[in-house]
Every structure is written in structure tokens, then in C-alpha cells.
Amino acid sequence: MAAVTPIKPFSPEETRWILDHLQHPAVFLNMTQGWPVLHWTAQHLSGCLQDRLIRFRLGRKEATNAPLFETQCSYIEATVAQFLRWTQHQTDVGSFYEYPCSEYWAYADYKYITTLFHDQPSMFEDVKWSEFGFEGRSGKESTLWIGTEGANTPCHLDTYGCNLVLQVQGRKRWHLFPPEDTAKLYPTRIPYEESSVFSQVQVLRPDPRKFPQFQGARTHTVTLEPGQVLYVPRHWWHYVESIDPITVSVNSWIELEVDDAARVSEAVTRAVVCAMKSAPSDDNADAWLNPTEEEKTSHEENMQYLNLAVSAQRTTGLFHKKPGPDPRATQPAKRGSCGRLKLRGDGVRLPFGEHLIPVKCQEDEPEKTVPDSSGDAAVSPGDDGSAGKTHTCGADLTRFSSCDLTADHGNNQGPSLITTNDLLDCLVHPDIISRVTELLLERHGGGHL
User: Any idea where the JmjC domain is (predicted)?
Assistant: First the structure.
């Protein structure tokens, strides 16, 4: 007897229309029934990957009021089978033996599916982003994330594209903040990673003396269940944590037209950061390059990247639908796709309801829940009480740079000495880089932003 194809609440064309008009995060329910990727539990992946080693990031399970950046974590290579035995406190765990499961969390994050399953290309088709309106898009343009409870990604924004995230196993809690709150998140480019702007704030346990303006940031929190897909719009800040013993998720970054200009900004940022952090100095001894970056690039290479990015912008222009070449192409899943610029007209009515749930600001609807994909149970956003309770919505949006607050506001010892990183926080602040990009394109790009 032939299998019955589940009827989805939205057609690919309808879903794409919704994505083109969404301006805030939202969760899609009942859209992934029948996707083979939903069988990608850690146990299933262990059988698929066999003895293949993958890199895990490990961090201590401890409560601090400072972010745990990737430069501060430990790294090992192990099989998924060893990872699973480690979570069950068994023996034969390979390199995990130095890290007690009771004291550490582990995260195999940002793993390109094309790399993991290069010898099993049929698995690419288990991920069906085509049903979200992106024809031909599959696991080939996606990344895989496997973690334990407590595994987290530091709060950051992605400079390129928007994001679709499918939860496969376990639950993850997302804490999101709108682009307008960027100043309140105290942005920094140290550690440096192309396409990521990190926050200096530990958003679950913020230090109000060091980051007083964070109390005005508007927290949007949601717990993502298996089978659900979260849409993260362009430049929304997010901190993500695993809240179940084992979690698996798959995501895909959708490129947008405005990414051509963003690549110019990123090339400017790289040139400035590398130049200043490569200079001999007593305060340049920190681990400033994120482990995701393969190596430090020379100034000559960085200027080549900048000229390539400006050339691509000159060729395509902001309002022409013709994806430009990526000057670096080190992270293809975050670059190449068929995403298009989202334009929203006044009066657009989105079909929110049982199949599409907006992620609301906590102060707007503190009791808002997102049902699981079966429609039976409900999970309260932020129900751990760990974040957002003292944050206000509709707060004063006066903009200022994080470099205005380099002094220690918690004592009377006066301002501290300005470090190279303090200076960089000002020089490559998103507002400053945006203006530099405008000037470059006006003078050398043959157009305007």
C-alpha cells in the first residue's frame, strides 16, 4: 500500500511568501511531516558516520556572568558513538575521557552536511527546504548541530542572510533580540569570525554594572521542539542553548541581495581587525581569532578580499537580483542560495495561527506558549526564568556605541586603560562600519547603498 503524503498547511509558494514578509522570528509547525531528516537522531547518525571523527567543542557547566566564547573552550575529535557512550557515563569514550560528563557539555556545531556525508550524497535529499519555497535546496546547503544539555552558542548576530532552523531531536531554547537593540547588546568583533558579531553580554546572567543598557534590550524567547522550524530574520541577535540530554538540529542560511553590501562591510572589518591585532603589543596576546577561522590572513590578502567585494557590489548593485561571487567562500552554506530580498508593504496580513506562531517579546505576552508539533503539549517561552524578566519592551532606543562604556562602572577607581580591543570595539562597531561601507561604495563602487 502506497504511503500517503502528508498535507502541509502551506504550499511552497505560500511559505516563501510568508518568509518574504516576516519581519520578526516565527515558528512553523506541521511543515516537516515525512521529512527523512527527522530520523537523524544522534543514534541514527552514529550508524551513518561509523568511525568518522568529528570535532566537538566542550565547555564547563558553570554559571558565570561572562560569555564563554569559542576561543575559551576545549576541543577534541571523537566519533558520535563515543559521544553517546560518554553521555551515558560508559567506558571507551576516546578523547572524552578527560572531560567528565557531569562537569562538561559537548557540542558538534556548525558541521557541513556535504562534508560529513560526502560519500553518502543521497542523505542530502533527507532535508527538504524546497517545501519552504527554495527550489532545489536540501541538506547540501545545510549544517548539522549535535549537543548535550547546556551546550550553547554565544549571543551573536549573523551579518549574512536569514536563517531556517529545524529541530530534530531534543529541545533548544532561543533567546532573540531585534537589530534595533544592537547597542544594548554591546557588540564586539573579538573574537573575530567573518559573518558573526558577538555580544559582550552573558544574556542569561548579565552584569548590570558593566552593561547597564542591556536591561533595555527586548528579549524574545522560544523553546523549539522536534519537527518545528524557526525562522530567524536578518541581523536578529540570538543566544541558543540545548535543554535536553541530547539535541540535534539542522539549519540553512538563506542568502539575501543585501549580502553583497554586507560582504564589503565584512572585508573592511577583517582588514582593520587583522591589521591591529597583528601589531606587536603587550595587550595583543589574547586568542583573538575564532577557531572557525582557518588562519590569520595578511593585509595584502585582506585588501584583495575588499576589492573583490566592492567589485561584486559594483557589478550587481543592491537592487538587482543577480547573486555576486563570494570573495572568500570559506563557509558556503552561509553564502550561496536562492534567497531574495524581503520587502514588506503596509497592511500585509500574515497567517498566524496553529501552524505559524510569532515569537513575541516576553514583556508583550509573558504567558505566550508554543505548542509542540502534535498540538498536545505546550512549552512556555523562557519558562526557566533565566532571562528577560527585568528587560522591558518599547524601551528608549537612543543609540550609542559600546565604546562609550569602557570604564568600570562598578567602582570609584576611575576609567581603566584603553586596550586594543576597546579601540576595535569602536572602530569596527556596526554603525561605524556601515558608514565606512557607504563611503567606499560611493567613491569606488559606482553606486549608493
Answer: 109-269
